[in-house]
Amino acid sequence: MNKKSIAVICIVFIFTASFFAFSMEGYLQIVNSNSVTSLDFNELENSEVKVVKGSTIRIVFEENASTGFVWILDDVYDKNIISLKDDTNVDIKIDDEQFEIVGAPNNRVFVFQTNETGEITLKFTYKRPWVEEDGDFTKIVKIKIVETPEIAPLNYLVANTMGNNVNLEWDYSDEYDYFKIYRRISVGEINFKYLISTVNKYFYDGNFAKEGEVEYGVSAVRNGMESDIKYVKVLLQF
Fold this sequence. Notes:
Blueprint: H1 3-22, E1 26-31, E2 36-40, H2 41-44, E3 48-52, E4 56-63, E5 70-73, E6 82-91, E7 93-94, E8 97-98, E9 106-114, E10 118-127, E11 137-146, E12 156-162, E13 165-171, E14 178-185, E15 193-198, E16 202-205, E17 212-222, E18 225-226, E19 230-236
Parallel strand pairs: 3-11
Antiparallel strand pairs: 1-2, 1-4, 4-9, 5-10, 6-9, 7-8, 10-11, 12-13, 13-16, 14-15, 14-17, 17-18, 17-19
């Protein structure tokens, strides 16, 4: 074997090994009518994910299917509570280039639909399917499906006016991903309309053209679940 052949073999080995380590990443995504929340697996370590019944759950792993290693779902779970809707292999592109060599990464995407309330444990194993003793790496995902959101509302919500502007401030002592703000202008609007999402505990709304009452609602969102909305009403006079 000449020196050029040895160099090529070393390069391929290093490239493949790096992608094997790269494949251990992943995340869980909760999709419902109100929001989309993504959680890294590091955030889920030794914890339980709570979702509202009817939500869709996407669990995404990076893998090296071209090397034979794939993520496999253990089939032992209550399919009345949660059902597998899709299991797809999706190629990964980096800098708009598609990998075409052995060891190139791809995503394994599992899509579940939550049907009933209850607690579920999903086990995923990273292995070569034809090798019996090959599942050294596993991921456990614990999911609790609830009827209504188990997330506390805001501690308080206050609104102050300055001319034709409104300043909202609120406090929240529990964990949260972000807040959702709703608004209803008393003259001409019957229902509250979603306005914006923010990670801050304040919001500035300005440049109203007319005087009158304006109502706001603010809720907290965590893991795809939205709290009850807390409301406040202000009277604009300028």
